[in-house]
Design brief:
By secondary structure, this protein is α/β, with parallel strands linked by helices. The chain is 43% helix and 12% strand.
């Protein structure tokens, strides 16, 4: 959700930026790397205690700032366009289940019937790059063929997750990671934002 369909205000990041002697982008990258990747892949990075303290502060401040969250790339409009084409839409998040629920509720997506399902790593009890969340979404939506699924994400680990699930992967440049980081995971496409998603899917014959 965050960085792909939901933008978050800079005020949710002071605890992170204050914890590291470098830029916001570098701080967020370290947070993603150390929280969202396996321990053996981050050996030699910043200390685990410091990382999880920063992550805890991040989620706490994010919860306190829900009223300031905004959609990225006219997400509701994009969802509506896709739904009109018969596309089922599922959301996933690495955030805690309760916070993920609060964000979805804040965005009003379910009430407007713009998304069909959502889940998070806490619910499936596995973190990216495991494909567990994607497979959970597929089961819920009765989709068996991974070639019928498109995974959109703003992080390299999200793209890796999609490749592990055997689905089409699209990276978007609305998160904290630059094009080179995303392209290193070899997504099927890199788009400026989800705003361009319906056109890309149409051009490629998906819808």
């Amino acid at each position: 959700m965050l960085g792909t369909t939901v933008d978050y205000p800079l005020l949710v990041l002071p605890s992170i930026t204050n914890s590291y002697p470098y830029s916001l982008g570098t701080a967020m990258e370290n947070l993603y790397v150390t929280k969202f990747k396996e321990k053996q892949r981050v050996k030699g990075k910043i200390s685990e205690d410091k990382t999880f303290a920063s992550y805890r502060d991040f989620t706490t401040t994010l919860r306190e700032s829900l009223e300031q969250l905004r959609e990225i790339g006219c997400a509701s409009k994009v969802f509506k366009q896709l739904k009109e084409k018969g596309v089922a839409i599922a959301m996933e998040s690495m955030l805690p289940a309760l916070l993920s629920f609060e964000i979805v509720k804040r965005m009003d997506w379910q009430e407007q019937k713009l998304i069909d399902y959502w889940t998070c790593s806490e619910i499936v009890d596995e973190e990216r790059p495991s494909p567990a969340m994607i497979r959970s979404c597929m089961r819920h939506l009765h989709v068996r063929d991974p070639t019928e699924v498109v995974k959109v994400d703003d992080t390299d680990i999200g793209i890796e997750e999609g490749r592990n699930a055997g689905v089409t992967t699209i990276a978007v440049l609305t998160g904290t990671q630059i094009r080179e980081q995303l392209e290193a995971e070899k997504p099927d496409a890199v788009l400026p934002s989800i705003r361009e998603l319906p056109s890309w899917l149409t051009d490629k014959g998906y819808i």
